[in-house]
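Exercise: predict the fold of this chain.
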Amino acid sequence: RVLRDPIAGPSWRVQFDAEALLGQLRGHILEAVQHPHANHVVKQMLDVLPSEYVAFVAEELLGSAVWASRHKFACRAVLRLVQHSAAGGWAGASAREVIS
């Protein structure tokens, strides 16, 4: 709950907190999506933050997207990426990896 609160509101402080949180997660997405609690943080980030903030999630899952789509926790992040890929852009490569 504590990790999800910084990315839920509209103020500049929340934006700063979200950027700090993203900095902590960068390079650790594969670990986070496997964790029973941290995967919810990744899922929430993909739901509420602008794509320019979270494009790195798709990049870090590239090459592991098929595995992640079968994992009991990581599949949540992959599902969000597939949903975002309908609009094209940054999530498309990971979505294409899973679909093909």
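Check your answer against the key: The radius of gyration is 13 Å.
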